Amino acid sequence: MARPVSSFRCTDCGWTTLKWAGRCAECHEWGTVVDTTEKASAARSLKPAAISGAGVARPITHVDTTAVSHWPTGIAEFDRVLGGGIVPGSVILLSGEPGVGKSTLLLEVASKAAAAKSRVLYVSAEESVSQVRLRAERTGALQPELFIAAETDLATILGQIDAVKPNLVIVDSVQTVASSNSDGLAGQPSQVREVASTLIRVAKDRNLPILLVGHVTKDGSIAGPRLLEHLVDVVCQFEGDRQTALRFVRALKNRFGSTDEVGCFEMTGDGIAEVPDPSGLFLSRGAVAVSGTCVTVALEGRRAMPVEVQALVIKSQAPNPRRVTNGVDSSRVAMLLAVLERRAGLEGLGGMDVYVSTVGGIRLTEPAADLAIALAIASACKDLPIAQNAVAFGEISLAGEVRPVSAAKLRAAEAARLGFSTRIDASATGSIGAAVALAIKTGFSAREAELDAVF
């Protein structure tokens, strides 16, 4: 008989060692190294298996795709992120912060599917059936074809699938379901791996779409092993500040579509509502122009959205001036401050407290917002407002150049649709100094027009 070989393995990343360690040397997680004593066995060669029928490989041009076409959920913003809808047999993972509205969104998806005469099984492993019923009454999601079960055992969930025979399954959430085939408590990496693998196998064998809810850790990543994101077909992230009503759904991984799209939703007292045209959500236009504000056009997938950037510059009372940002990258703002002081002649910014924020809670990550951020800071520093009909987008280099950005025609068309007639970009100006001068000039022209109208 072969002598047992003692080895230890990390349940999170798979790192192996001959000695036990409290912390994994690969992923640096604590308490994930467990003893996996295996019997050493001689290498055996596998015999080729007989293949017949539908299992025989065939040319890719002969594969029928009618059975895997997208199935619309009835929620256009969610379908936009998924690439047109849910694909039969696919497994979709939706993650997000606690209380952001994941369960509310999926209950709405279940209601829309049940209203279309599709049988839906909603498995709640966190709430009771009565609690889900109360939320469904509040959001208007009561449908006769929507079946609800409160289960935390994987075998019982599989039995529910056999009994109900649904067309769509929603499991809320995968971290609270446990399998008797795996040791440990629910939520541990081994349990999450076993539950996800079993549900994915059921989805592929029965051509049954399954939506999974995933928890997140303190740093915002999906809880559990990284293998979970590799196994599923689509990974969606539900974003939004709990203090505001605006929510975004982004696709981090999508085997059936693009990952550039974003879905906009708004949390209301009656549930979650779509925002098909979010153009006015990120603007705070008043009757009088205010210094320190500038509008840009951000691109989310193929959707152009105008966003207002606000800046405040005041004299610092501390030895180290403060740099506070909200919705923009702090390192990018620090670079733009240096360019403004060196290339645009705005002296004294190094001793000022600078606050930069976006309206509506949206986050700007693309370089096209550089010019709007710089102009908002310059407007606040000079205390001279920019014209309300002006929009700016462009990337700023360290040399002070304003570079063109992608999809400039799409951004310009959206700005013109909303009434922004003055455009400040790389085609209008070539340097940051000229852009600042042009922006301030538009503000003077607007004030002169207002005076002419009064007198």
TrEMBL record:
GO terms for biological process: recombinational repair. It holds the Pfam family Zn_ribbon_LapB. Belongs to the RecA family. RadA subfamily. HAMAP family: RadA_bact. GO terms for cellular component: cytosol. Residues 353-455 are annotated as: Lon-protease-like. The middle region has homology to RecA with ATPase motifs including the RadA KNRFG motif, while the C-terminus is homologous to Lon protease. One of its GO terms (molecular function) is zinc ion binding. The lineage of its organism: Bacteria, Bacillati, Actinomycetota, Actinomycetes, Micrococcales. Residues 67-216 form the RecA family profile domain. InterPro entries: AAA+_ATPase, DNA_repair_RadA, P-loop_NTPase, RecA_ATP-bd, Ribosomal_Su5_D2-typ_SF, Ribsml_uS5_D2-typ_fold_subgr, Rubredoxin_2. SMART domains: AAA. Keywords: ATP-binding, DNA damage, DNA repair, DNA-binding, Hydrolase, Metal-binding, Nucleotide-binding, Stress response, Zinc, Zinc-finger. The keyword Cell cycle does not apply. ATP binds at G96, E97, P98, G99, V100, G101, K102, S103. This is DNA repair protein RadA. A motif (RadA KNRFG motif) lies at residues 253-257.
